[in-house]
Design goal:
Elements: H1 21-37, H2 40-76, H3 83-91, H4 93-122, H5 128-138, H6 145-163, H7 165-190, H8 196-199, H9 211-218, H10 223-229
Length: 232
């Protein structure tokens, strides 16, 4: 009696490696550095300087545990499924589904927020005639030039990602390098003018309860960890 073994494919399916260490650095830093231009200031409104600092400390403790857990799971379960894969393995299908949905919501809503920030900045660079024309056309819908620029920016970045992961990463790397240089320039100009009295002038405008609404903003400081880990 002879036995036969089923034929095996010549190679197992795998993801194509499109990003290297430098591009992953650009992705990670790009995730976080956007907060320097638009994002972290929202935490100052509710928490103040001390409140946002307290939220930052709490989130730092959370991310220390997060990094240790994520690193171990990524080595034990090398699959490109993120929180969903890890949640299903450790907590069951229902918990994995909730974790996966939460992560999808996070990254689905981040691009529109960034596009709107671009619109808020870019509207001041539009020619006055074009800005007034957009306002007159969009005003009946309660919109303005910011929304028009945001829609265009969102469409362009979506098209860039559809074009290719590598092309999008190269673009983000270039923008990140420019952003880092601009922040270093800003720091060099502003640092000599720093005054501690200004930093503490409105430290906790809403009391220590203001720390709670500042916590989601403080998470922005560590988006690089999660974003780079889920690049696959």
């Amino acid at each position: 009696m002879s036995s036969s073994t089923p034929s095996q494919p010549s190679h197992a399916p795998a993801l194509e490696r499109a990003l290297g260490p430098v591009m992953l650095w650009g992705l990670g830093v790009g995730y976080v550095i956007s907060g320097e231009y638009f994002g972290w200031n929202l935490g100052l409104i509710t928490g103040g300087t001390y409140g946002l600092l307290a939220a930052f400390v709490l989130i730092t403790v959370m991310y220390v545990t997060f990094v240790l857990s994520y690193t171990e799971m990524a080595c034990a379960i090398p699959r490109a499924g993120g929180v969903f894969v890890y949640g299903v393995r450790g907590l069951g299908l229902a918990a994995g589904y909730l974790g996966g949905i939460a992560q999808v919501v996070e990254f689905v809503f981040a691009p529109p927020a960034i596009a709107f920030a671009i619109g808020a900045y870019a509207q001041f660079w539009l020619p006055v005639e074009l800005r007034e024309s957009l306002v007159s056309q969009l005003d009946p819908w309660g919109l303005d030039a910011r929304h028009a620029v945001a829609v265009v920016a969102y469409a362009l970045f979506t098209a860039l990602n559809i074009w290719g992961v590598r092309q999008a990463a190269m673009f983000e790397l270039a923008v990140t390098v420019l952003a880092v240089g601009e922040l270093l320039l800003f720091t060099g100009v502003a640092a000599p003018q720093f005054r501690w009295s200004n930093f503490t002038a409105n430290a906790v405008p809403n009391g220590w309860w203001g720390v709670l609404p500042a916590i989601p903003i403080a998470i922005w400081f560590y988006l690089a960890i999660e974003g780079a880990a889920n690049a696959a």
